[in-house]
């Protein structure tokens, strides 16, 4: 982890993969010397963003890397001499979050097609959800994702709702709401290696209280029946299975 001037009891630096992604995007536009100068500015901006960031559990929150990598992406966007268009920032987020990375498909027994694998994932998430919800309810964590599972008792795949979103809260505070589609949309193609499809009819970035994620087989009728549709702001939102 690179050295940053931050309170490590409350916060973390962004990941190595995010650093690689940022450097890769910079190298497409600037000279090596300019890339180094901009990386320094990104780090300083990142540090300033964390000064008043609510405590979200730091290393005790298994999902926290998503928040810090998102903040690094916002810092990148902020310091560029010429800010990227929303379309360009979509490409940036795909690189930073490694959503554009070609992954070998996993064996069948490690994909959503396997009921046994889904049961194992469900069993693994439950204690994580219990801990995260307890920390938020007690106020020990000031922000974060609450997790609700299988609220609709669907007959296939796995339904996991993330209630609230610290990334969206950060974006609203700093005026980056228009960039949220770039953050959210890359989730849809990002699970191909699990042979999974994502149905997400509700999302915080669309004004809902949660991101309601239903993971099904890529061959499921649900993928065809509830496809993502693009809103005016560019956000992808699936048709709702409840309607």
Topology as a string of helices (H) and strands (E): HHHHHEEHHEEHEE
Q: Let me know the largest β-sheet.
A: 4 strands, antiparallel
- Intertermini distance: 46 Å
Radius of gyration: 18 Å
Large-scale geometry = globular
| Chain-averaged pLDDT | 93
Identify the strand order in the major beta sheet: 1-2-4-3
Write up what this structure looks like.
With 243 residues, this protein is of the alpha+beta class. Helices cover 42% and strands 12% of the residues. The chain has eight helices and six strands. The chain has helices at residues 16-27, 32-50, 64-79, 86-96, 115-138, 166-174, 180-185, 221-225, and strands at 146-149, 158-163, 196-199, 210-217, 228-230, 236-238. A four-stranded antiparallel beta sheet has the order 1-2-4-3. The chain has a two-stranded antiparallel sheet with strand order 5-6. α3 crosses α4 (86-96).
Give me some keywords for this one.
243 residues, alpha+beta, 4-stranded antiparallel sheet, 8 helices, 6 strands, 42% helix
SSE layout and pairings?
Layout: H1 16-27, H2 32-50, H3 64-79, H4 86-96, H5 115-138, E1 146-149, E2 158-163, H6 166-174, H7 180-185, E3 196-199, E4 210-217, H8 221-225, E5 228-230, E6 236-238
Antiparallel strand pairs: 1-2, 2-4, 3-4, 5-6
Helix pairs in contact: 1-2, 1-4, 2-3, 3-4, 3-6
């Amino acid at each position: 982890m690179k050295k940053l001037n931050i309170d490590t009891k409350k916060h973390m630096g962004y990941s190595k993969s995010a650093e690689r992604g940022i450097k890769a995007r910079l190298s497409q536009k600037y000279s090596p010397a300019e890339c180094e100068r901009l990386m320094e500015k990104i780090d300083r901006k990142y540090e300033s963003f964390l000064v008043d960031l609510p405590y979200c559990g730091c290393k005790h929150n298994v999902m926290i890397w998503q928040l810090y990598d998102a903040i690094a992406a916002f810092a990148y966007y902020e310091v560029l001499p010429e800010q990227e268009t929303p379309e360009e920032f979509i490409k940036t987020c795909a690189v930073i979050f490694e959503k554009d990375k070609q992954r070998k498909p996993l064996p069948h027994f490690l994909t959503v097609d396997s009921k046994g694998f889904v049961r194992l994932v469900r069993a693994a998430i439950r204690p994580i959800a219990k801990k995260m919800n307890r920390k938020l309810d007690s106020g020990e964590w000031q922000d974060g994702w609450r997790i609700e599972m299988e609220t609709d008792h669907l007959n296939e795949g796995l339904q996991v709702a993330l209630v609230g979103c610290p990334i969206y809260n950060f974006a609203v505070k700093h005026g980056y709401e228009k960039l949220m589609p770039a953050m959210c949309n890359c989730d849809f193609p990002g699970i191909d290696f699990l042979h999974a499809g994502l149905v997400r009819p509700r999302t915080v970035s669309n004004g809902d209280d949660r991101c309601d994620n239903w993971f099904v087989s890529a061959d499921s009728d649900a993928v065809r029946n509830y496809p993502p549709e693009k809103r005016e702001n560019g956000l992808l939102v699936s048709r709702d299975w409840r309607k």
